[in-house]
Amino acid sequence: MQGNRKKVSSFIAAILLIAVASGIGWLFQIWNFPEANIVIVYILSVILTARFTEGYVYGIMASIIATCAFNMFFTSPYFTLSVNNPTYLITFAIMTITSVITSTLTAKVKQNAREAQEKEAAARALYHLTNRLTNAESMQETIEIAEKAMEKVIGEKVSCICFEGERQRTEKEPEVEEWQIRGKKSVLGLVRISGKTAETLSESKKKILRSMIESTAFAMDRFRSEAERLKVSEEVAQERYRGNMLRAISHDLRTPLSGIMGTSEILMGMAEKQDERYVLAENIYKDAAWLHALVENILNLTRMQDGRLVLEKQMEAVEEVIEMAVTAIGKRAPERDIAVEIPDEVLLVPMDAKLIGQVLINLLDNAVKHTTVEEEICLTVSVNEKTKEAVFSVADEGCGIAREDLPNIFKMFYTTSQKGADTDRGMGLGLAICKSIITAHGGRIWAENRSDTIYIYIADGGRKMTTKSEKILVVEDDAQIRNFITYVLQQEGFPHLSAGTAKNALSLLVTNAVDLILLDLGLPDCDGMDVIKKIREWSEIPIIVVSARDQDHEKAAALDAGADDYLTKPFSTTELMARIRVALRHLKKSGTESGKTVRSVGGLSIDFEKRLVYLDGTEIHVTPLEYNLLTLFFKNIGKVLTSQYIIKEIYGISYGTDTQALRALMAGLRRKIEKSPAKPRYILTEIGVGYRLVDE
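Request: output the structure for the sequence above.
Response:
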């Protein structure tokens, strides 16, 4: 409607200006002015028409009407469009062309001026909007500022809608025009104005509106990013708190459990198996071991909360993972033997070795619980030729799994409906955790029944206590653990000293001749890592870390700092004494064999002068890298060497941290020196940490 009124008014203005020009021309004719003056008056009316009307159309229309009026009123025959003098045709043509050109130029100048004004107004509006948005302190304030600025530009009510999170817009309201507020990642909201207002908006105002929307989107993105940053910060803080809590739980529970298990083991050794006291001590040990397994499962379950299991996958040799699992089960059930079958060729599989090892330990432990000593347990690794997947299989000769239990045994908190030889308590976590780990690796896990029968028998041996000359320093702040360790040392005939703080330990080292240190890391006055570094500044005395800290990077850091071995709580007296004997033998040999050209461990020996390696008296061929690796191990017999230390010594400091080449090298060497690479005799794997050459 408003547009039509503008058209009518423009048309009337053009007619009136031509009429006025005709009147002035009539006066000029009376006053005998030249016709050229009348033509100029008509051209002036055309210019004025172009100036005061919208667009080019009215200027061109005025040009044509002016030419016709001049012909009708000022050339003979008058009041007709006829022309007697042909020269007037040229005059009319020139007049028309001149009028059109001047009208066009005038309209263009006017349009340029208008556009310049609009651009200036847009720039000014955007400037003020940006300044105000910059100072906005909330999303709501941003929306309010944007609405007022847009309303000022278009002169109508504007509504801004902000989406919460990823919420999408609702259905479009009738008679409303919408513009999306697009952020960097998603649509942040909508700008809504009435449909009638949108139809009348000029292109310039639409451009201003779009620019304002972009500025608003930038400001909203800022608040959204800040909110996301705060959310991430909170999550990081929560994760840090959760990690600290887990470490605290791990330490606070492992330490007393170690004392309970160790003390009960000592009590078992003080009585005959038929004695009631032995049975009571054994029950205490089993309950503590069950509680330890429960704690480990709960910690693993917590780490895998919300299905967010972080994998540290690398190419791992399967025999190293199997070695870890079989060794762990051997400590828990020394009377049981695990049959192992692996491919003849080196098999490297991308996996998180520690987690897959935990899966195998859980499966083997489950097999041990549900079988007798005479029943076989077999761990097999093969390759599916079709899918090229590594297949791990744990099979036993137990009573099997009830048919109704098979579909459910990997569910959280599910326990089987039947009880076999094992009546231990269970919460249904172990197999559920196994499934979570395997699923995270992109694999599958299932259970089925089988029927093979192979019997394996293991005989126990005995030992006698002798008096030792080596003095051992026990550095442990927990009194129960300290008393347990010192009692074990006393029973083994080792003279010993004890300290509950780092300060007392360092004082004892200065005033006493000590041959070995058992060191806890969590000391009240100083971290055990700093104690290791201080001792290594002046002494090479063997240090065995005895700690509840079980993270691989913590173990590696302690070993790289100068520790010789690392024992995680809880531990058995058998394992503790084995580690002590290895460290002391290494101490003795390091002095007596420093000048020897031939060194031996069991049937494995190396001749440094001839650069030859022998197994059971027979020379074996090794590559230069394999020889260098063996040399490094024989120079550090019994000591745990971290993977990064081995890589630096074998490949050079510039090689990097990739362990794949080392694992392939180790797998090839083991196939030459070990009867069963998965159950090694000489070089043992410390999963996540490194390797060590045995000294027993």
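The longest helix spans residues 203-269.
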